[in-house]
Design brief:
The structure is a single chain. Helices cover 32% and strands 21% of the residues. With 391 residues, the chain is α/β, with parallel strands linked by helices. It has two domains: 152 residues, 2-Layer Sandwich (VC0802-like), CATH 3.30.2130.30; 195 residues, Rossmann fold (3-Layer(aba) Sandwich), CATH 3.40.50.150. The structure holds S-adenosylmethionine. The site of S-adenosylmethionine has 20 residues, from helix 6. S-adenosylmethionine binds next to helix 6.
Length: 391
């Protein structure tokens, strides 16, 4: 195993949440920048990070970083990187992605072409061949230019990490799994507390919550592109999967409810919950938010209501927020976490949020309104000792 720098890209405004998750997994965080967190690892860490991280978009191996103000500089410096240490002779190595911010080199298609050419030259020299069949495993190269600094990566994930493998079908406006996970990470909700999503749609928030509560690694139901790489042996992947399986809390019972007014969305939600292995943890039911009530105290509502992006929907969404305000006001000891792109949300809801945080739902800027309920009374500590006094 060798020391590797890994980079996890994430949505803007999620960096600190992701950095915390990475630390909690036992990695050393090296740098937190806009839209990405760099951390130190080894080959086994590639498997662990891909399998366990809930808010990362993908996991990249950092191949190198250098100044590049001209295509020549980009070419020469890319050529110097140790591509052959990762990509075998028959490997397929597309320059799959490039982005450029505030840099002199800005044509992403030209950047991709130069990078590809440079990697071919580097591989020719090291593998001592003139022609690459590229019929083996895939090694997608990502190039990121920021203020004339180029960073080159190999993608270890393949399809993005929000694709957990449990979403067979989706309803009209599903939230991304990584965003749902971020929303949950930003609450003090835990598996022994009540959770309701009254606008659950295809169930993403409640499914992500149940998976977190059961400690199901989000990547267990899917494959990753680096599973075929020589550098990350199959045995290392197998061990990481076994370890993740062993961590699942199958005996846990949670109180999680998903409601929606649309029966067809609930059908999708039930199917997705079954595929995710959490169907027994979630009670789905058709219910209008206006009929929401609970006799329980200290619950959490984490939800993604309609935003009313089309003008004709706006009035009805504003009325919906007013009605939500009245219904939620009766849940005096509950906490509410609501994401919406409607900037006047608080006005219609009738209450100012204790905290508001910017988040992105895809390209759409949204706010995450947080209304804190009172803290539940502290549970008696050492109850086991009281029940079973020491001899
Ligand atoms: C933005 S979508 C939620 C998407 C969900 N987070 C997901 O990942 O699939 C909003 C949902 O609110 C539901 N809805 C609209 N009006 C409602 C009402 N009055 N009561 C309950 N649900 C409602 C819609 O059917 C829709 O599924």
């Amino acid at each position: 195993m060798s020391r590797i720098e890994l980079v996890a890209p994430c949505n803007f405004a999620v960096e600190s949440v992701l950095a915390r998750e990475i630390k909690e997994l036992g990695f050393e965080v090296a740098k937190v920048e806009d839209g990405r967190v760099t951390f130190l690892s080894d080959e086994a860490g590639i498997c662990k990070a891909n399998l366990h991280l809930r808010t990362a978009e993908r996991i990249l191996v950092k191949m190198g970083e250098f100044e590049a103000t001209s295509f020549e500089e980009l070419f020469e410096n890319t050529k110097k990187l140790p591509w052959h240490e990762w990509i075998p002779k028959n490997g397929e190595f597309p320059a799959a992605k490039a982005s450029s911010i505030k840099s002199q080199l800005f044509s992403t298609s030209d950047i991709q072409a130069i990078v590809k050419k440079a990697v071919v030259e580097s591989m020719k020299r090291k593998h001592k061949v003139q022609w690459f069949e590229e019929n083996g495993n895939k090694y997608p190269i990502h190039t990121f230019l920021n203020k004339d600094k180029a960073a080159l990566y190999l993608d270890t994930s393949g399809s993005a990490l929000h694709k957990r493998g449990y979403r067979e079908l989706s309803n009209e406006a599903p939230i991304k799994e990584t965003l749902a996970a971020t929303m949950l990470q930003l609450t003090p909700w835990r598996e022994d507390r009540i959770l309701i999503d009254p606008f659950c749609g295809s169930g993403t928030i409640v499914i992500e919550a149940a998976m977190k509560g059961m400690n199901i690694a989000p990547g267990l139901k899917r494959n990753f592109i680096s599973e075929g790489w020589n550098r990350v042996p199959k045995s290392v992947w197998a061990r990481a999967r076994e370890e993740a399986e062993a961590l699942i809390r199958r005996d846990i019972k949670m109180t999680i409810q998903g409601y929606d007014i649309d029966e067809s969305a609930l059908k999708v939600a039930r199917l997705n919950a079954r595929l995710a292995g959490v169907e027994e943890q979630i009670h789905f039911q058709k219910r209008d938010v206006r009929d929401l009530s609970s006799r329980d105290s200290y619950g959490f509502i984490v939800t993604n209501p309609p935003y009313g992006e089309r003008m004709e929907d706006l009035k009805s969404v504003e009325q919906l927020y007013k009605d939500m305000g009245k219904v939620f006001a009766k849940l005096e000891t509950w906490s509410f976490y609501i994401i919406t792109a409607h900037e006047g949300f608080e006005r219609f809801f009738g209450r100012r949020a204790d905290k508001k945080r910017k988040l992105y739902n895809g390209m759409l800027k949204t706010d995450y309104y947080q209304f804190y309920g009172p803290k539940p009374p502290r549970r008696k500590e050492n109850t086991v000792q009281e029940d079973f006094p020491a001899e």
